[in-house]
Amino acid sequence: MTNMFGFVLYLAALSLLTGSEAVSQTFISPGEVNITTCPISYYGQRYEKVFVSLDANRFAFCFGGAFSAGLPNSCILLSGGSADRGELEVFSRVIPFGSGVHKVLPDLESTGECVNVIALKDNKEAEIQQVELGNFGAQAVLGIKTFPGYTRADVEADSQVNGQTVSKKTFQTSETSNGVITDISGCRLSGTVFKANTTDDSEICSMVTCGPDGVAKVVSKCGPMQSCHKGSCVPSSSCTVVASAVISFSGKVLKVPDRCGYTLLSMPGLKVHGVFRERQRKDVSFLDHVIVKLDGEGIEISVKQSRVRLNGNVLELNATAQEFRGVQLSKDLTGVKVKIFTSSHTVHVLFDGDKALIRVSGLTAAVQGLCGDWRGFSGDKVAEFSSRGCEVKHEDPADTSIDCEAAKKWCSHLKQAPFSACNKLIDPEPFITACSNTLCKYPAKDGLQCKSLEAYAMLCSQTGSLKMEEWRKTTHCSAQRSCQDTFCSDHEFCSQKYSGARPRCLCRALFASKYSSDNTYGEPTVCKHKSASVSLAKCLLADHGIDSSILHLNDQACRGQEDEETHMVTFSFNSSNTCGTVIKVNDSRIIYKNTIMTQNISTDGKVYRHDMLHIDFSCFFTQPGTKSMAVRLKQSSVDQRITSGAWRYNLTMRGYTDPMLSSPIESGTGVQLDERIWVQLKTEGLDENLINLVAQSCWATSQPSPSGMLKYDLVINGCPNPVDGTVEVVNNGMGTYIVFSFDSFQFSGKTGDVYLHCKLQLCVKEGDRCVPRCNQHGRWRRSVTSGYLDENPVLITMGWTS
């Protein structure tokens, strides 16, 4: 409390001194006061109107409408009393704010901006009672002053939200005649009001803090490896499934040997199953989808990469949890979340299309399944979710691109910063073992290196000891685009061609193997009653860099029809719609012949990124026939070493087929069109603390000369060519090496050699002066022009040949 009279005089004096004019409004009560020019945040909610009313006993200020007893309104109710000189009048004004209140209410974080002054007068213009609502940003203050016309001995101030009292104070008129102020700041959360700068710990598992910003925050009382169950913090056990590895609650690592369905967790009334399938190798399995069954409730939830089904019906989920007979389901960027409440536990299942995290609160006894009390793979196999022949073992030829020692070194990142901050809470060894087992067997595809670290990072982020962006920056693992909205058929799986690329469906190895021996893209021709059709697998075409949407028959208007469920693309013609079919008579037999071909690339621009396709298919009247052709592009890398002047150093340019730069492109390496290529420009012999390497430009030509007539830009002024969305540049001007990547291509109308050229310069390191400035679209914003050691750039060339 303080002397309010001096406070009011100070404000009025400030207004006069600054020349500011008050905004005023006069009316006979009751009335509505517009405070748009000085809005008030009353217990966490902003208001721009005040409804004023009074009777013989009450002077009311409400924010949700005129006061009416019993209605859930937000009001400040003051005792009023009758004036002794007739009818009353309400006068309001808004004036600028000065300083001084912080000495009385030190919890105010912001300075005041303005004050709404609402004065109650009698019909002779004598003030009886004055109220001030002060704007302090997200906070607010209430000032009260009474005058001789006020007839009561005290003033009662009742602050209400939704009809419930938040704060009630009584002031004697000996105080209010001098003026008092009080804080009316706070927060609201789920209909509950909290006072500003307070903490409410009435909840068993959490507490609510209300800060000066008017925002209530819920803070869990449970530890990093605990969860709340029935109002208590209980231990939480975690089981992780990534690729074919299951890391059990006890930390044991199990390797699923085949492509069958297994029970991951079995508890009374609840089972969680995992179904494993192959991807690009037949001898390595991956977790494909998760099935949750509640026997007593008759619930079966199937969670796949892009579809969630409840008892066979597809669900549309979002970040807001939906409840289905006691099971909560939601979906966000981290994956699909299933929350099940049992009589003794709470079970959380998270599946993101690649890995599953199963957490059980209050787990004190052993549970069955691969995550718990393991009975062996035969005991936990589920015939209901296992396809015929899933147990058959396959042996693919060893992949010579795999470097097991390098893979183990990569997996050991989990013991280094920033992961090391989590090592005391979660043992990294089982995750390192699972990571190494997978990467020593499966090639560096589908973003698998980063996904092998993500499982540990997910657990660590839940303990609060690791932020996802920290480890991604350290390991150069960019966030993978989600496959949640990409539907793939049963013979496909969703992944990315390279880090940062858009998700797409790739062929599973067992499906693709049916066609690889015959070098075909799909099923044989079907001939029927002067008609013919051919069904090609979209994923097989995509694996060879062929976009099925640009294929057509002899008549370009005849395109393939894609089946939404199987993703098979069917091309067909008949006698009524020949689609340019050539009809011949040979030995009294009618022959129908057409061709599936790539769209005429001469109109597509300067370069193209798909293989040319030409598939003839024909039918005799009763006998089918098929012929297919494929064109492959081969590449070779050329290392060039340059020694320059007194600054003696070596400069190397080399191409790779993986983002980890572990699989160099050698002579004879087969590379498809539209396949990702990474190029590293690396120096040796330079002091990286003093000098940075800058790639000014990189371009491709169809001739060995860098000034060849056919030219295609990849890097312009140190930035990716903005018209080619496949180009990415890393570390340019930031060290002694540069990496850029792009999708391979061929010049339109050409089938010969393609040469890559780069202009490079050395730059004296000072801050970020050497780094080219590119905007978010890759366009150049500021060139690096100062600090170079060499005035003339170095030209280095690499080529690939068909």
In short:
With about 800 residues, this protein is mostly beta strands.
What descriptors fit this protein?
Protein Transport Mog1p, Chain A, mainly beta, 802 residues, 9-stranded antiparallel sheet, elongated, Immunoglobulin-like, 10% helix
General form? elongated
The major beta sheet can be summarized as: 9 strands, antiparallel
Q: What number of structural domains do the residues give?
A: 4
Report the count of strand segments: 60
Global Rg: 37 Å
What class, by secondary structure content? mainly beta
Question: Unreliable runs, pLDDT <50, ≥5 residues?
Answer: 1-22, 83-88, 622-646, 777-792
Tally of individual helices: 9
As a percent range, the share of strand residues is 35-45%
Average pLDDT confidence is 79
The end-to-end distance, rounded to whole angstroms, is 88 Å
Provide the helix percentage. Answer: under 10%
